[in-house]
Specification:
By secondary structure, the protein is of the alpha+beta class. It has helices at 25-48, 54-76, 142-160, and strands at residues 2-7, 12-17, 79-84, 88-94, 98-105, 109-114, 124-129, 132-136.
Length: 169
């Protein structure tokens, strides 16, 4: 998902990139709870049959599924914020707050779109400043990447050719 914002007072463009979130954490909790109820029912049935060894493995299985779901949901909450001004390009990455922040001088910064290396792979969009290159939007779909490319072109054109002030006095 791509959202952008323009602050006309400061001349700052902000592009926020987020992966698609198919399920909420609450929906995942319902899934885990239903798996726990079914697994505990089966485990208790076997405990009553004197097969007590099934119950710990049942609980370990549900715990592993819950950990995997947590990891997947956490990955869908990451975001990248690209801020473009007349002088700088700032890339921030994180989940609730920026964990990583990179600042580049806009004059030396370029955005590159690389075609896929192999058929069936996706193209990559990267930000390059001098010798440092960083991929952006790796979690975006092809359509979202095309939208990001169009948005970046529009923003860069707007920053390169600001509206002229017609007031003379």
């Amino acid at each position: 998902m791509i959202s952008n914002d323009f602050d006309s007072s400061s001349g700052r463009f902000m592009i926020v990139l987020r992966p698609n979130q198919s399920w909420t954490w609450r929906a995942n909790l319902y899934l885990i709870a239903s798996l726990l109820v079914v697994s505990l029912g089966i485990g208790i049935f076997f405990v009553l049959q004197n097969n007590w060894l099934i119950l710990p493995f049942t609980l370990a299985e549900v715990a592993l599924v819950a950990a995997c779901l947590y990891y997947c949901v956490r990955r869908t909450h990451q975001q990248e914020v690209i801020t473009l001004t007349q002088d700088a390009v700032i890339l921030e990455r994180g989940i609730r707050q920026p964990d990583e922040r990179q600042r580049f001088h806009r004059y030396f910064t370029r955005f590159f779109v690389k075609p896929p290396r192999y058929r069936g792979h996706r193209q990559t969009i990267s930000l390059r400043c001098r010798d440092e290159e960083t991929e952006i939007g790796s979690f975006l779909s092809e359509q979202e990447k095309q939208q990001l490319i169009r948005t970046l072109r529009e923003v860069i054109a707007a920053l390169d050719h600001p509206a002229k002030d017609n007031s003379s006095g």
